[in-house]
Amino acid sequence: MLAIYILFDDTTNVSTAVSFENADMPHPSSDLTLGIMAKYWTVGKVKTRLGHSIGMNAAAEIHREFVLRLCRQLAAVQSRRVLAIAPDSDGARLREQPELAAWEIIPQGDGDLGDRMSRFFQTQLGFQSQRSVESQRDTSSRETPASRVILIGADCPLLGESDIANAAQQLETHDIVLGPAIDGGYYLIGFRGPWSDRFGRLFHEMPWSSSDVFAITKQRAEETQLSLAVLPENEDIDTIECLDRLRDHLNQSRLENRSLAEFADRIDTILSHNPAS
Fold first, then answer.
1. Within the chain, where are the H helices?
2. Contacts of residue 24, Cβ cutoff 8 Å, sequence gap at least 6
3. Which has the closest alpha carbon to 83: 133, 132, 162, 152?
4. Contact 67, 181 (CB under 8 A)
5. pLDDT at residue 98 in the model
6. Which H or E element spans position 148?
7. How far is it, in rounded angstroms, from Cα 191 to Cα 30?
8. Within its chain, how far is the Cα of 220 from the centroid?
């Protein structure tokens, strides 16, 4: 199966069809789309705050581990699974990663974080709506159109199926679901379709680098009379202090959870090979 994604540029009124998808990948039958938005692990381009403490090479390797772990852990979620990657040109480099076999890979496109997130939701909700129209013409390929779309980043590597299931359940009765991060941002956002222009207000002119992102997003949702569900707080792993807390948690869970033990070992190996750590 080959899906074509339409990226619309408001400045030129031009739509571009692109796809990095594995044509042989099965398409889950579900009304849910799960997305991960992440950067490719180029040294010096990812986790630079952490890199100042452990070295940029180690920071890039840590980021890679986070992305691939999330893709492994969430591969069984009954949904369409989409990895939105930046820069756009690096999407093709991910095809050989076995952890990504269950994921469609698409480019994030241009713009700031808000532009790219807004485009992702519009594309996914709009794409599903178009599939619904097309399936009505061909009943032999009828599928249930997705009405819920959830997007996470790659900074909370311990997110699992239960977290996504909880968020998806909240979207049964709410327009928006948010997972607040300790630093004032959010690690998860989801919408119940169809797309509304009111959703776009949550991404427009947002101070993304500040600690007010969650509070402003929540306020805007309330101002536009969108029903909002809030998930438990979580921590983005962006600094050495956050990484130390993550490692402590992993070591405490080592005996009970083999997957976490292996994850801890990979992080320890990366740090042991880097003089700055």
1. 48-54, 56-73, 113-137, 161-170, 197-200, 213-223, 240-252, 258-272
2. 1
3. 152
4. no
5. 86
6. strand 148-152
7. 15
8. 22
Q: Which parts of the chain register pLDDT below 50? A: 1-27, 29, 127-145, 277
| Rounded to 5°, angle at Cα 166 from 254 and 71 | 55
What pLDDT score was predicted for residue 30? 67
Q: In which order are the strands placed within the sheet that holds 104-107?
A: 104-107, 80-86, 32-39, 148-152, 186-192, 176-180, 228-230
* Bridge partner residues of 234 (DSSP): 181
Residue 34 corresponds to which tokens in the numbers above?
């799960």
| CA pair distance 136, 226, nearest whole angstrom | 30
DSSP designation for 78: S
3-state helix, strand, coil in the chain (%, to 5): 40, 20, 40
Strands 228-230 and 80-86 turn out to be: unpaired
Q: How far apart are CA 8 and CA 11, in angstroms?
A: 9
Q: How many CB atoms lie within 10 A of CB 89?
A: 10
Indicate the pairing of strand 104-107 with strand 80-86.
Answer: parallel
Q: What's the full length of the chain, in residues?
A: 277
pLDDT score of 105? 94
- Dist. CA 61–CA 112, nearest whole Å: 24
Question: Which domains does the chain possess?
Answer: 5-272 (3.90.550.10)
